[in-house]
Fold these 3 entries.
Entry 1:
Amino acid sequence: MLNLVLFGPPGSGKGTQSALLIDKYNLVHLSTGDILRGEIAAGTALGLEAKSLMDKGDLVPDSVVIGMIKSKLENNPDAKGFIFDGFPRTTAQAEALDTLLAELNTAISGMLSLQVDDEELSKRLLLRGKDSGRADDQDENIIRNRIKEYNNKTLPLKEFYGAQNKLQEIEGVGSIEEINQKLCTAIDNL
Ligand code: AMP
C-alpha cells in the first residue's frame, strides 16, 4: 500500500494537491477537516461538538478524529492506499495512526511536508474564505490561532516522521502543477 501523510500549515495546498494525487496514484483521500465539515452540515452531535472548536481555530479532541479515521480505514478494506490530509495533527494522533495501520499490516510510506511562509498562508486563507464562505478562513484572528495551533501542536510531527526516515520537505510555493510535479517526484522516489 502507498500511505501518504500530506503535511503543512493551513492554506499550504494540502487539499488541492490531494485531489490531484488521489487520481494519479489511485488512493483514498481522508481529510479530517472535510469529514468534520460534513458532520456539521449533517447536524450530528459530533458536528455540533466540533463546530465550536473549529470556529475558534482550536483543534478538536484527539479521540474524536482518531475515531473518525479508524472507521474510514475499516470502511475501505480494498483501498490501494490512503492520503491523510490534515491528520495527524498531534503526536497522539500520529501514534494512533501507526497502531491502526499496523493492525492492517501496513504503515505510512512517507510524509510530504509543504513549506509556505506565514504571510503567504494568511493571504491564501483570506482569499479562500471569500470563495468558499468558510468562517474559519475569513477572520484574521482565527487564522492566526490556527497557525499558532499548527506551530505548537502539529509541527513536532516533522520530528516524529523524521525519526522514522519518512520526512520529505517540498517547497509549497509556485504553480499548482509545479508543486504537484515535485510531490510526484518525491512519491516516486519513496
Ligand atoms: P482543515 O480543513 O484541515 O484546515 O481543518 C479545519 C479545522 O478542523 C481545524 O482548524 C480543526 O479545528 C479541525 N480539525 C481538522 N483536522 C483535525 C485534526 N486532525 N485534529 C484536530 N482538529 C482537526
Entry 2:
Amino acid sequence: MGALNVTPDSFSDGGRYAEAGAAVRRGLEMVAEGADLVDVGGESTRPGADPVEAAEESRRVLPVVRALAAAGAVVSIDTAKAEVAAAALEAGAAVVNDITALSDPEMAGVVARAGAGVVLMHMQGTPRTMQDDPRYDDVLAEVAAFLRRRAAAAESAGIDPGAVCLDPGIGFGKRLEHNLALLAGVPQLAALGHPVLVGASRKRFIADLLGPIPPAERDAATAAAHVLAVAGGAAILRTHNVVVGLQTARIADAIVRQAPASEG
Ligand code: HH2
C-alpha cells in the first residue's frame, strides 16, 4: 500500500502532493512501481496535527481518488469521517482506511452499504494529544483485544468479515517500547484471523533508535521493520517508498514461505 498524502503538513511528504495533479501523478507512479493499493489521505495524523473540516478534506482527496480509480488503481481512502468516506467510495475508492476504527457512528454503515473493505487501526487518544503520555499494562494484549472488539462491531454492522483488515497503529499513542512490542507481536495479531496491515514507514520510532535522521532517509530502517512484519504474517505494508517496500516484502516472503508453516 502506497501512502499518498494530499496534505500541506504530513510528516514525511507534507506539501509534495498537496496539488491534485502532482498527487495523481505520484499515485500512478506507485501503481507502476507495483503498489496493489494507493492510500489517499487529506488530513495529517502526525502527532500534534490540527484536525481538518470534512469539506476541506473532501476538496483535497476527491479529485485524486476519482482520477486514480478511473485509471484502474485500487484506492483506499484514509479518513475517519463517514462523510468523506462515502464521497470517496462514490468516487471509486474500494477500501476505507480508518485510523479510529469506525468511531464515527455513521462509518460502519457507509462501509457496509458500499460493500467496501475496511482497515481498523488502534490508536490511544487523538493525533493532537496521543504522544503526551501513552500508557499500557500490556500493550500487545490491549491492542489485540481492542482490534478483536472492533472487528466484531464491524461484522455486526454488516461488513463482510473477509473485508476487514487490522492494524496495530504504529506511532499512534505509543512510546518506543510499545511500538517495538507491537512490531514483534504481528504473529499474535495475525492469529486474530484477519489480514494485518503494518504502517511503520519512516516513523518516529526509527529516529528514537537511530538518532535524528530525516524521514526521507529512513527507508532502509523501514525495510528492517518490514522484513520482520512479513515474517510475522503481515499481509499489507503501508509505505512511502513503494520500490523498496515491494523488493523487501518479496524477498522476505520468498524466504519465509518456502516451507509450509507447520514446519517452521
Ligand atoms: N499511519 C499514518 C497515516 N495513516 N493508516 C493506517 N492504517 N496505519 C498507519 O500506520 C497509518 C495510517 C501516518 O503516516 P503518514 O500518512 O505518512 O503521515 P501523516 O499522518 O502526517 O499524513
Entry 3:
Amino acid sequence: MSLMFSSPVVTPTIGSFTFSSRRSNYIVMSAVRSNSASTCPVLTKFQKDCATPTPYLRNVANAIADDMRAGLAVEGGGDLDMILTYVDALPSGNEEGLFYALDLGGTNFRVRSVQLGGKKKRVVATESEQISIPQKLMIGTREELFGFIASKLASFVAKEKPGRFRLEEGRKREIGFTFSFPVKQTSIDSGTLIKWTKGFKVSGMEGKNVVACLNEAMEAHGLDMRVSALVNDGVGTLAGARYSDEDVMIGVILGTGTNACYVEQKHAIPKLQSKSSSGTTIINTEWGGFSKVLPQTIFDQEMDAKSPNRGEHLYEKMISGMYLGEIVRRVLLQMCETSDLFGQFVPVKLSTPFELRTEHLCKMQEDTTDDLQTVGSVLYNILEVEANLKERRRVVEVCDTVVKRGGRLAGAGIVAILEKIEEETKRMGSGKRTVVAMDGALYEKYPQYRQYMQDALVELLGDKLSHIAIKHTKDVSGLGAALLAATNSIY
Ligand code: BGC
C-alpha cells in the first residue's frame, strides 16, 4: 500500500513523499512520529551480533589461515580457492615494448596502453579509457558482454597516437586481461570461469575459457590482438606495485568486491603438481569465499538469500563495497518496521534493495555538524525520509556498526596472509619489510573503514607491524596486467 502525504514535521519547502504503510490494515492520513523509547532493541541486538573483539578477530584470522593451508593442499580443500595463477615471475623493470591492459571486474571496464622503456625509461607513455558497463550487459549473454568490450577496445586502438606508441614490426598487440572473478587458470593465458560474483550473471560463461570468449569477440570485430596474460585484479595490483617496490608481497582489493593475492613459496603448495618445488608463485586466494566463524546476522542472511550467488562469497558480502550500504538499509528497514525509526510509515525507498549505497554511508559518517545536516540530506535525497536528530544519530550508529565490522574483518584477513608469509619466509624476523599493496574504492574513499582495518592490524600484530607497510597503490592493476603481458610475451 502506498500513500502520498505531507508530514507535519516536514518543512513547507520540502514537499511530500511516497511512503508505504508498515501494516497493511493501517489507513493513514497523516504522519505520526514515533514515540518509541530511547532504547532501540533492533540496533542493540545488531551491535551485539556484529561485535568483533580482539580474541574473536584472532579466531577469524586463524580460521582464514587454516583455510588457506587446506586450499593449498588440495583443490576445494577449504573455503578459499587458493588459485594457482601461473605467475611465477613478477615484473623486473626490464620490460620493453607496447602492451595493453583490459580490465573487467565491476561496473566499469578499462582499457590501457602502456609503452614500456626498460629499466631506465620505465613507463614512457600510457593512455587509458574507462567505460561504464550498461547494467543489462552484466546479466545478459556472453556474446553481448564480450562484443561490447571488443567494440570499445577496437575504438580505443583506432584512436592511438602513432608518435607516442610504437609497436615493433612483426609483433601483434599483446594484452594483459584482468578478469576479476574466480577463474580456474589452466595456463598464464587461459582459464575457465568458476562462478560470477558482484551481481554479474552473464549466461553461457560458467565453465568457459574466458580468453576464448574474448578472442571470439575480437575476431568478430576484426581486431588482431593476442591475450598473453590472464590475471585477477589482485594479481595485477601485486605486479603493478612490485614494479616500483620489490618488498610488495600482497595485493589486496577492497572495492565493489574483495580479494587478496600473495607471493607463496612453491614448497608450501602440496597441490602444485610441478616438478619444481623451488621458487615462488602467486596465489589468488579468492578470500571472498571464506565463510567460517563470521559474525553473520539475520540481515546478512536475508541479503545473501536474495543474491544471485546465494550461499557464496559470504566474507565478501560482509566486507566489500557492494554490500555495506545494503546491509545498513536492511537494518534501518527493520528498525522502521518495529517503530524504532522514521515514524509509523515505511518509506518506499527504504524498501528498495540497494537504494542505499556504501558511498552514502561514507558521506553520512563524514558529517561533523552538530545537527548532522549531511546525514539529514542524504536520508532525504536518497531514502526520501525526514529524520530528526535522534534518528540521524541512530542511522550513523548503524553505518558505523557495519563499517567497523567490515574493516576489522578485512584486517583479520590481511593478518592471516602476513602470518602465512612469515611462517614460510621469516622475512620480518630477519628485519625485512613486507609491503601490502591496497586498491579499490572502498579502501581509497572510506577513511573510517581504513581506520577500523588498521585498528585490527594493530590489535593482532602488535610490534610486528613495524615491519609492515600498507600502501595505497591506486589503479596499478592495469599497469600490472600490461607488465605481465610483457613478461609472458611470445615474441
Ligand atoms: C572476485 C575476485 C576479485 C574481487 C575484486 C571478487 O568478487 O571473486 O576475483 O578479485 O571481487 O574485484
